Amino acid sequence: MGLLYDNPDLAALTLTRLAAEESEGPGGLDGRMHDYLAGLEHRNGPAYLELVAIALARVHFKALDDLARATGVDSAALLDAAEMEALEML
C-alpha cells in the first residue's frame, strides 16, 4: 500500500479489507495486517496508529448504527450484544 493510504480513514478501510479477505478462509493475513501497520508506524510514527484505531472505531460504530436503523434495534443494544459475545469468547 502506498503513501496514498497513509490517511487514517483509508488505513482503517484497508485493515477492514484485509480482515474481510481473512474471513474468506484460512490463511496468514494476520502477517499482512502486522506488516501494513508496521509500515504505517514506520512512515508516520507510533501516534499515527492511535488515529487508525479511532478511525476503525468510528467505521465500526457507523456500521452498527446503520444496522440498528435498518433493523429497528437500538444501536446501544447491538453494541451490548457484540460486547457480550466478545466477552463469552474469552
Distance between the termini: 33 Å
Order of helices and strands: HHHH
Quote the average pLDDT: 84
Strand content: under 5%
Description:
The protein starts with 7 loop residues before the first helix and ends with a helix. The chain has helices spanning 8-23, 29-44, 46-71, 75-88. The chain is mainly alpha-helical. The protein has four helices and no strands. The protein is globular and about 40 Å long.
What's the SSE blueprint?
Layout: H1 8-23, H2 29-44, H3 46-71, H4 75-88
Helix pairs in contact: 1-2, 1-3, 2-3
List keywords for this structure.
mainly alpha, 90 residues, globular
In short:
By secondary structure, this protein is mostly helical. Helix content is 80%, strand content 0%. Helix 1 runs antiparallel to helix 2.
